[in-house]
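Data availability excerpt. The first of two example chains:
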Amino acid sequence: MEIKVLGTGCQKCKEVEKLVREVLAEINVPANVEKVEDIAQIVQYGVMLTPGLVINGKVKVSGRVPNKADIKKLIEEEK
């Protein structure tokens, strides 16, 4: 599973990355988590508001910090 956290390094972006890693540990799902901070790459996903969350190439969240339950659901949908 490929997970990308899109954001330029703001506190909300760091929070999303932290929550994603916590959820992955809790549900024991292996995944490659990457932080994408390059504006050009973020825009390629069509994300105009960060933080963004991309799972297996699909934009799942943009412009907000999802809670752990939301993240878990999104990851399980892509398993």
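And the second chain:
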Amino acid sequence: MTRGYAGDRYFLPVLPPMKRELHPLMAWWAVLYALAMLARYQPAAWGTLISVDNTQHAVPIERLLERAINHLPVLIADTITEVST
């Protein structure tokens, strides 16, 4: 029911019609895709969300993006290894 990721175990949902839990790479993709669409199609809202002076969400978004930069290269390499064996 849990999947190992970044040295810990996480509970990831099973979304119909999937038979297994969501892969961490797909979870990251969904989050980053949503943020990219917000930045592209709603630039004023994105600018407000990342402004430290205007919202409490700016620092968590910055931390999320920093974590993505640090974790995704390793996760991508691990996923390639996982599917190639």
